[in-house]
Every structure is written in structure tokens, then in C-alpha cells.
Write a structure and sequence with these properties.
The chain is built from 11 helices and 12 strands. By secondary structure, the chain is α/β, with parallel strands linked by helices. The protein has one domain: Alpha-Beta Barrel (TIM Barrel). The chain has an 8-stranded parallel β-barrel, surrounded by 9 helices. Strands 6-7 form a two-stranded antiparallel sheet. Bound molecules: ligand PBG. The site of ligand PBG has 11 residues, from helix 6. Ligand PBG binds next to helix 6.
Length: 332
Amino acid sequence: MKPTVAPYPTSRLRRLRKSPSIRAMVRENTLTPDDFIWPVFLMDGEDDETPIPSMPGVRRQTIDRVVKSAAMASDLGIPAMCLFPYTAMEHRTEDCAMAWSPDNLTNQAIRAIKDEVPEMTVMTDIALDPYNINGHDGYVDNGEILNDETVDALVKMALAQAEAGADILGPSDMMDGRIGAIRSALESEGHQNVAILSYTAKYASGFYGPFRDAVGASGALKGDKKTYQMDPANSEEAMRLVERDLMEGADMIMVKPGMPYLDICQRVKSTFGVPTFAYQVSGEYAMIQAAVQNGWLDGEKVMLESLMCFKRAGCDGILTYFAPEAARILNG
Ligand code: PBG
């Protein structure tokens, strides 16, 4: 690369850091509420919520409350929400049939939000873990996670969500072939305008711990997810996955977790140039909140800084539990 900077003192880079207005003029990236997808947790009942101890400030909400949250988020300029159900234990079975019931929590919530707050883009999660007796994202046979049988179930789940009115489906299961199978089912069932934001580079991460508490899957989970989620040591493999998911019909790509994987975000965006999202996951949120609660970090500063860094890395947007708080600050 040619040098673009003359030597000191001809060039003094501090000249462009002199004042807030000059810094604003030369700022390379911006963060706005448009960048956020807000993940929320659903629970049964009416007009109620329960806090999630490992995620201070986050709660599971009944559908009526989530609808109110959707209206609030829309007023804040947040374009999209992603729904995660806390399924009652009696609805978790070996065949995971609740996953494609038109009346499961997610599908009820999709309809309720689209009825009351139609401008809100509703995203879902596709994986069997909230409905599976053993906490895995796929069917388990003798300790093995079955790929193709799981994909058949995921297709049914996807169609039920599309039928309920979901705008974006988020397959988070990491089975092979699921994007193509879901895309062709959507096409043949008249849901050609439903988008897929694939959890493409999803790593087998320790940072999902608090989320598994939130959806009640931690106690149930036997073993780990390393035979389907990616090895944190790998980067080339993420490129192969992105290429494959795009060929199979994904509209957008996700990297997950976020902060420790910014190199992957940047590679995906610079190699493929497609809409790229990062998930700042539950453990990243918990880590920041724990330090803030101890008085060790300034919450507002590190929240906005961490979110801006995703933009700098090339992300088009971020799934973040901070969405409403950050939007409130950004709106002034
Ligand atoms: C389920 C799913 C997980 C998350 C999103 N979808 C957990 C997992 O894979 O175990 C994690 C989100 C977070 O930690 O915030 N397949």
C-alpha cells in the first residue's frame, strides 16, 4: 500500500481530532437505532414478566407485554425484533412437535405483534432446543445429532412461522442443508417474500450460557454442541459456510458470537459483500453488565463502543439485548 501520510510535522493526525465537530466530519462509521435487531424472550401467561438473573435488565415477557415492547421499540426507531420462547417443560418432547404448532408461543407472538405493530419486522429462531427434552438443536439418537431428520422438522417449523407472519427466519441449528430445504419449502408454499437470515458462522461458544438459562435449556442439555456448531479456532470454514448458505438461498448472514469474532465479521463482509449481521450474545451482554454493576466499567460508554465496533468491522446490523437502551441514548 502506498503511504498516504506525509511525515511529521507536515502531517499531524491530531489536527482532525481537535474538536467534536471536526471529529464528526471525518467519522468513518455511524451507529443508529436502524442497526439493531432486538432479541426478546417470551413466556406463557398474562401481563407478567420474570427477570433472568444472569442477564441483568432482561426479562421474559408474556405476549401482551411483548406487544407493548414492540410498540416502544418501534417508537425508538428499532426496525426489528427476534423472538425466543421459554417453553413450559411439559411441552418439551423427544419429537419436538411443539416447534411447528401454529399455537406455540412464538407463532402466537408473531401474530400479535404483526396485528398491533405491523411496521415492526419480526424475526424468529429456527432450532429444536426450546422444544427438545434434551436441550439440543436437533434430534438425538444414541448420543448422535441426526442431521437430515432434523432438517425435516426445521422445515415444518419454518413454514409454521412463515404462516404466522414472520418477516425473517433465523435458522440457528447449524445442520447441513437446512437453508436450501427451508428456501425451497417457502417457495413452494407461497412464502417467497420471507427472508432468511442464516446463523451461518455460529460457533460452539461458552458465551451462550445465560441464554440457555433464559430459555430454560441449560439444565436439560446433555453434552455439548460441538458436532454441529463451529470450532472457535476456525476461520476458513466460516467462509465455506457463507458461500454455501448464499448458494442455498440465504438473504443475509450472521456471525455469532460477536465481539470475540469481529475478524470473521470483517472477512465475511469484505469477501462476499452481502448483508452481514453479528449477534452480541447473552454472555457478552452479561459480561458488560456484571462489570457495570461492580462499578468497574461505564455502562453507557462500553455499550455504545462495543456496538460501534461491529459497524467498523463491516456489519450492517447487530442483534443486541442493549437495543432499547442504546436507541434511547442515540436518540438523545
Ligand atoms: C438456539 C440459540 C442459541 C442462541 C440463539 N439461538 C443458543 C445455543 O445455540 O445454544 C444464543 C443467543 C445468546 O446467547 O444470546 N439454537
